[in-house]
Amino acid sequence: MVGKESKAEFGFISDFFRNATEAQKREVFLAVLQQANNAQRKVMEQSTQSKQKAQ
Fold first, then answer.
1. Number of C-alpha atoms within 13 angstroms, CB side, residue 51?
2. CA angle centred on 14, ends 17 and 32, rounded to 5°
3. Stretch (H or E) spanning 55
4. What's the CA gap between 9 and 19, in Å, rounded?
5. What is the pLDDT along the chain (55 residues), one digit of tens a residue?
6. Would you say the C-alpha torsion 9, 25, 14, 35 has a positive or negative sign?
């Protein structure tokens, strides 16, 4: 992720967005989007499994 690989240190998220390059911002956005997609997929799978068990 950006924080470990970047030489810059960011104390607050606002500092990150003020000082980060466009590439860093894009990388963080895509990482967060991937996490959200994975979480949504997990919820959908659990919901499907719960419905199957209820039948």
1. 6
2. 60
3. none
4. 10
5. 444 545 556 678 888 888 899 999 999 999 999 999 999 999 999 999 888 888 7
6. negative
